[in-house]
Design a protein that fits this description.
This protein has 451 residues and is an alpha/beta fold. The protein is built from 14 helices and 23 strands. The protein is globular and about 70 Å long. The two termini are 42 Å apart. The model has no long low-confidence stretch (mean pLDDT 96). One of its GO terms (biological process) is carbohydrate metabolic process. It comes from Amycolatopsis vastitatis. It holds the Pfam family PGM_PMM_II.
Length: 451
């Protein structure tokens, strides 16, 4: 019996093509997914990104689905949030073939139920793994059929209907698609808007010849920053490989914190729905819940990870959720994450006023932050306990363990230390009043972790 635990992750299936993932295995995953959702739905919608292996794997998955008697709607090339749109608007379970920002040799599958409801370890993914490991049972009935459907235009129209840019002043923006799916979606979404788009790396190329399609790594936005300064653009937008995350730089080429974007979009959503609930994960800036409360909203704090955000959004009826990883979730988008919709909100806010983006976002950036700092450790638990003991003995320190270790210090500084689920790493995020205080606290915690 094969052991698939190395590729069936918490939220998706992901592995090296040809070594861990091939057409035969993916066909079995398709059949197992069909068995999981057969009581709920007669059809599955499938999309794929621009990686060389994606079309073939998507076809194999479709063969697995149809082998169990379910039909398939293939939307072809798509961003992940375009697949979520198809799942929501067509009310079908979905499968997206992508490895997001991972290197070219990887591929994977993100699964959802009808209405873009996520499928993770606790909501079906473990059951799918068990079915494949034990052998997918055969089906004696009639095979399902495959039809093709283009939803890109409908997806773009749906997003534009949620954010009104008709009154915006003309804007010039640089968009770095990183040779990923933003190059497929941006031209259609931005068509007809009062926005001049200067494209960078829009050619779909799963080998990522220019840089990794991970805009959270500062090395991957250097080209975008330089281009924004060179052409005098109003802003820059970078997308990751499957274009479900967006990262913003201002007119100076300076990165805008995803926490600031979360607060900005939250305020806009609260203007439409006063008193609404806003979800934020525990490593977003403490400025986010402060600003939400100041605008009459109800901030709710969650663990890191999209399954926790989406579950809490469903439980509370939240109108919006944001993560410091630049994932943004909207009730009006089936509680799914869409970087494109967040980008449209930022540009609409910018276009409604005459000042530069740096002035607009400064109101949402109240504190200094370290960003995520990773440390390789032999014993995650022991190092976490050492940090807890060191800080817990101090007067006025508050500690909670909702997700890793969150330590609140007198005076407002705080840090979160979380273990990686897949690597021998501890992830540190620090926030304080200024960069000097941040660095001091970083040094103090790392001295414990790395000794």
């Amino acid at each position: 019996m094969p052991d698939l635990s190395s590729i069936v992750k918490a939220y998706d299936i992901r592995g090296v093509v040809g070594e861990q993932l091939d057409a035969d295995l993916v066909r079995d995953f398709g059949a197992a997914f069909a068995l999981l959702i057969k009581p709920e739905a007669p059809s599955v919608v499938i999309g794929h990104d621009m990686r060389d292996s994606s079309p073939g794997l998507a076809t194999a998955f479709a063969e697995g689905v149809t082998s169990q008697g379910l039909d398939v709607v293939s939307i072809g090339l798509a961003s992940t949030d375009q697949l979520y749109f198809a799942s929501g608007s067509l009310n079908m379970p979905g499968a997206m073939f992508t490895a997001s920002h991972n290197p070219a040799k990887y591929n994977g599958i993100k699964l959802c139920r009808a209405g873009a409801s996520p499928v993770g370890q606790d909501t079906g993914l473990a059951e799918i793994r068990d079915t494949v490991e034990q052998g997918v049972p055969g089906f004696e009935g009639q095979r399902g059929s495959v039809t093709e459907r283009d939803v890109l235009t409908d997806y773009a129209a749906y997003l534009r209907n949620l954010v009104d840019l008709s009154g915006s002043r003309p804007l010039k923006i640089v968009v770095d698609a990183g040779n990923g799916m933003g190059g497929h979606t941006v031209p259609t979404v931005f068509a007809g808007l009062p926005i001049e788009v200067l494209p960078m790396y829009f050619e779909l190329d799963g080998s990522f010849p220019n840089h990794e399609a991970n805009p959270l790594d500062p090395a991957n936005i250097v080209d975008l920053q330089a281009k924004v300064r060179e052409v005098g653009a109003d802003a820059g937008v970078a997308f990751d490989g499957d274009a479900d995350r967006c990262f913003i730089v201002d007119e100076r080429g300076e990165p805008v914190s995803p926490s600031a974007i979360t607060a900005l979009v939250a305020v806009r959503e609260l203007a439409k729905d006063p008193g609404g609930t806003i979800i934020h994960n525990l490593i977003t800036s403490k400025g986010v819940p402060e600003i939400v409360a100041e605008h009459g909203g109800k901030p709710v704090r969650t663990r890191v990870g999209h399954s926790f955000i989406k579950a809490e959004m469903a439980r509370t009826g939240a109108i919006f959720g944001g993560e410091h990883s630049a994932h943004y979730y909207f009730r009006d988008f089936w509680r799914a994450d869409t970087g494109m919709l967040a980008a449209l909100h930022v540009l609409a806010a910018l276009g409604e006023q005459t000042g530069p983006l740096s002035d607009l976002t400064s109101a949402y950036s109240r504190y200094a932050a370290s960003g995520e700092i990773n440390s390789t450790v032999d014993d995650q638990v022991a190092k976490m306990m050492a940090v807890k003991d060191a800080f817990g003995a101090r007067s006025g320190v508050e500690i909670d363990e909702l997700d890793g270790l969150t330590v609140q210090l007198p005076g407002g500084a705080w840090f979160n230390l979380r273990p990686s689920n897949t690597e021998p790493l501890l992830r540190l995020n620090v926030e304080a009043a200024n960069t000097e205080a941040v660095q001091g606290l970083v040094d103090e915690v790392l001295a414990i972790i790395r000794n």
